[in-house]
Amino acid sequence: MGINELRIAVTVVSLAVFVGIVVWAWRGRFEAAAQLPFEGDEQ
């Protein structure tokens, strides 16, 4: 395996990790945290 194949593998793995993080964040796990700035604003 040459350096170019290693670079390609690292790029593909990095892209997969990035897409995984984006999907994880969009699944609604942070809904409670998103509402924190609005706590105590009841009028």
Automatic annotation (TrEMBL):
The chain crosses the membrane at residues 6-26. The keyword Transmembrane helix applies. Keywords: Membrane, Transmembrane, Transmembrane helix. This is Cbb3-type cytochrome c oxidase subunit 3.
